[in-house]
Amino acid sequence: IQVHTTILDGQGSPDVAMKEDGAFTVVWTSETGDGKSKRIYKQNFDAKNKKTEKETKVDKVTLSSSATMGNPHITTLGTGETIVIWENTKSGSLIDVAAQVFDSAGTAKTSADIVVNATSAGKNFNSNGIAFGADQFLITWERDIKASEFKAADFQASLFKNHDISYENIKGRV
Q1: Deepest of 40, 81, 118, 164, by most Cβ within 10 A of its Cβ?
Q2: pTM for the whole thing?
């Protein structure tokens, strides 16, 4: 199955999630053509492997020349909604973990990306997520922290609960 429509520039880092009915969504990174930036895209398929929409840009960020998106992951809630998680390198060494939630038809439920990490200082990376139940998902990531003269990292997690359009971070840092 040819997943992406765009074949110019680089495509990579695919991930896939399947719904209970056999439909599935693939996410990946795509270079923007300027040689500096990458964006996150998705493609929905029905249970018969047919595309159900055009390939769609996931992130809502307006890119600057130094911003790039990467390492997408996807998970599916029991309601058929999908959550896409990725890393947003804003400039130099600042990396945020971001997410977007799509309804069962593939439409974004929020007008802006959800910034998952509570602080933008340093690097937040190695993100991943899992859905459980009909309306909750957990996103984990690693945060690079600097302590005196050595580098250290700690692991973070945020539990989100679906409240129609808003996604409440109900647990914060674990």
Answers
A1: 40
A2: 0.84
Residue 116 near residue 96 (C-beta atoms within 8 A): yes
| Tokens encoding 7 | 């074949």
Say if residue 113's pLDDT is above 70: yes
Query: CA 64 to CA 49: how far, in whole Å?
Result: 35
3-state SS, the chain, equals: CCCCCCCCCCEEEEEEEECCCCCEEEEEEEECCCCCCEEEEEEEECCCCCECCCCEECCCCCCCCCCEEEEEEEEECCCCCEEEEEEEEEECCEEEEEEEEECCCCCECCCCCEECCCCCCCEEEEEEEEEECCCEEEEEEEEEEEECCEEEEEEEEEEEEEECCEEEECCCCC
Tokens of residue 106, six digits = 């593939």
Based on its alpha-carbon atoms, the radius of gyration of the chain, rounded to whole angstroms, reads 16
